[in-house]
Amino acid sequence: MANRRQRLKHLLTSSEWVRGEVKAMTNFTQFAQTRNIFVQKHIDLLLDVGANCGQYASEIRSFYKGEILSFEPVSIAFAQLTKKAAGDSKWKCFNLALGSKTGTGSIRVAQGTQLSSFLKPTAYCQKFGDEAKEIREEQVAIRRLDEFLNETVPDLQHRRIFLKIDTQGFDVEVIKGLGECSRYILVLQSEVSIVPIYEGMPHWTESIALYERAGFAVAGMFPVTSDGLRVIEFDCLMIRDEGEALSDSTQIPKPGS
């Protein structure tokens, strides 16, 4: 816990760009809130979308012993992810991207693999330095999450699911691939950018509005990166009111909408 506080102090006091290891939960308030939600919602399945090298799931493992399904399309990051998950029988890893349509796509692999994206980085993104430099492109498989869940989780309707998404500007596409399976997600965490760091990514208010239409309410907004003067990105943590059924007006938009 002391190490986590030290990293948080660095995040709040350093004027340097912070990324990479800060992608794990360095904010102590966020860690406590997330742990409380896991307990109060009786979460028994974590969907770790955009797992990178397993930083987030590793932090969650400090208090959550249930099933984890991690998804990471970039080959280098996936190799490190599988090593981290090795020996954990309840942590499964899939070399996949998730999106609104099943198929393949070309992902821009950045030197700092946590900055890899299907989208082209903006000029602002270059302020992350060498970490943002593109080193190659990879053709990767993309699946809709509803198809994957229906095929892989036989007792889906009885599971209590926490969906974490960190896909560098592609989070909304992942949500659109949920379709009617959205009703099985009790908690959602999505990274939203106040300053766009990829071209064509939705404005942060558009993302939150979509999530609210899907039945989620904001439970917390936690800084991920800062330039020393303003927050660049937030982790948006949202929960669903289990007593409120989804109506036609709160369905996830169809692909392409």
What's the quick description here?
The protein has 257 residues and is an alpha/beta fold. It has seven helices and ten strands. It has a domain at 19-95 and 145-243: Rossmann fold (3-Layer(aba) Sandwich), CATH 3.40.50.150.
What's the arrangement of secondary structure elements?
Blueprint: H1 2-13, H2 28-40, E1 45-49, H3 55-60, E2 67-71, H4 75-85, E3 91-94, E4 97-98, E5 103-110, E6 134-143, H5 145-152, E7 161-165, H6 171-176, E8 185-193, H7 204-213, E9 216-226, E10 231-240
Parallel strand pairs: 1-2, 1-7, 2-3, 4-6, 7-8
Antiparallel strand pairs: 5-6, 8-10, 9-10
Q: Runs with pLDDT <50, length 5+? A: 1-25, 245-250
What is the H level of CATH, i.e. the homologous superfamily of the domain at 19-95 and 145-243? Answer: Vaccinia Virus protein VP39
Find the count of extended strands (DSSP E, 2+ residues).
10
- Return the CATH architecture of the domain at 19-95 and 145-243: 3-Layer(aba) Sandwich
In round numbers, the mean pLDDT is 85
Rg estimate, integer Å: 17 Å
CATH topology of the domain at 19-95 and 145-243: Rossmann fold
The number of helical elements comes to 7
Distance between the termini: 44 Å
| Major sheet summary line | 7 strands, mixed
What is the C-level CATH assignment of the domain at 19-95 and 145-243? Alpha Beta
Order of SSEs: HHEHEHEEEEHEHEHEE
Q: Please list the strands of the largest sheet in the order they lie side by side.
A: 3-2-1-7-8-10-9
Helix content: 25-40%
Shape: globular
Share in β-strands? 25-35%
Determine the structural class based on helices, strands and strand pairing: alpha/beta
